[in-house]
Amino acid sequence: xxxxxxxxxxxxxxCLWSAKAQEGVASSEPNPLRPYTFQxxxxxxxxxxxxLMREAGDTIYGSLINEFGVSAIDFxxxxxxxxxxxxxxxxxxxxxxxxPTLKKDIALCVQLLCDLPHKTSARYQLxxxxxxxxVKNLRRRIHYSFTPILSTPSPHDTTEQSL
Amino acid sequence: MKRxxxxxxxxxCVAPVWGGTPLTAQQKQEVxxxxxxxxxxxxxxxxxxxxxxxxxxxxxxxxxxxKFYYKQPDKLRWEYTSPYQYLFIxxxxxxxxxxxxxxxVIDTNSNKVFKEIARMxxxxxxxxxxxxxxxxxxxxxxxxxxxxxxxxxxxxxxKSFFSKIELYFSKSTLVIAEISIYxxxxxxxxxxxxxxxxxxxxxxxxxxxxx
Lengths: 163, 211
Fold this sequence. Notes:
The complex is a heterodimer. In chain A, about 20% of the residues lie in helices and about 40% in strands. By secondary structure, chain A is α+β, with helices and mostly antiparallel strands. The longest helix of chain A has 20 residues, at about 1-20. The model of chain A is unreliable at about 15-25 and about 150-163 (pLDDT under 50). Classes of the chains: A alpha+beta, B alpha+beta.
């Protein structure tokens, strides 16, 4: 009986640890959410919505959602390697010839918005108009613009915190 | 000790699922008929809404507010006022979107995805989605003060965005009260509608395709 209870306790601990490991960002992390409205323009097409980021250790996690709350892109930026991993991409952008460009562009945008060192390149044009940051991928003719969403920060950063 | 353990195991594994009461097939059909009947009588809707987006990756949520208007048969205005400004107008086959920097008019006849989205939005808020058996698998649950209608998409275009949609209809008015949208990446969006006014005159300029 004692051995059985010990085994059950171990299994329970394993389940809890596993569930915790699957979380993108630990709920106890005190780092605030960084919200921006964004617009990505490619020729006549555009994608707009809210760009959200949160730091967790050496990684910056981000989500791009449209105004209706539909997810477009989830990503993780590793500060050490300065590379982006695309965790999920909406179907119309999830193409083999689009993903590499998205990764590089998102990496640069994260570096800019999080005040991280970034390399200058003739492929990109960076500018700021008031509060709005603009990143232009001159080669692919993609324009990104970001405007911070101002909000009153919550005093306690709990698992579910309002923006 | 052994008895206590077995009782606990039973409670975890076998205990009844908390939540709504499932209905028989006949009861479901009757609820759907009643909602459809009520929807046919609704000529217009005006209300405010609040939207909460739960982000599983960031373990956080984003809240937004706005106003919603609907006019039979095919006019819809979805306006976000906080924390961002965004306007979505559906008027017949045309969609108008606008934010602080850009405005677009899209003809849904030439854009299949937009056509599906527009149709789904109209059908969801009016309850007509319940009759779209070719679009969704439909289930109905009694949630005490509300009817919960669970829509599981069948079409590939919609499936790529959503894994399921829950519509909540007030039992007293049979008008949509809440919508929950679940995505494949474990994100979900919940919308609640407040101060709902039905069959009030609505200014046509609300659905104008220009600012």
